[in-house]
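Dear H.,

Thanks for agreeing to be a second pair of eyes. The structure we're designing against is below in token form, covering all 92 positions.
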């Protein structure tokens, strides 16, 4: 007795779903963890360094009683940590 088209479609969809799940599990290896650590590190470092660079430039141009470099360092660090947190949450 030949297979009904609906049954064949359901079987094909199930096979593709299993293949996608196996591929997703295969990607989650040690290299993926190392790559995530690198991305998270750079997502914290770059805004922090940018904040310091802009802060030093502002300190030279418009000196104030407070330090622009320290203020923007903290701001860059907060932005970087928020960025890293969002990246980790997205990866899960």
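And this is the sequence the design step returned. I haven't edited it by hand at all.
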């Amino acid at each position: 007795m030949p297979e009904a088209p609906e049954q064949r479609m359901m079987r094909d969809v199930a096979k593709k779903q299993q293949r996608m799940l196996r591929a997703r599990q295969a990607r989650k290896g040690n290299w993926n963890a190392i790559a995530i650590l690198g991305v998270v590190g750079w997502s914290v470092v770059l805004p922090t360094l940018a904040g310091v660079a802009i802060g030093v430039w502002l300190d030279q141009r418009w000196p104030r009683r407070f330090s622009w470099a320290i203020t923007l360092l903290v701001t860059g660090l907060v932005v970087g940590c928020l960025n890293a947190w969002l990246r980790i949450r997205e990866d899960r």
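Two observations from my side: The mean pLDDT is 87. The longest helix spans residues 30-61.

Warmly,
E.
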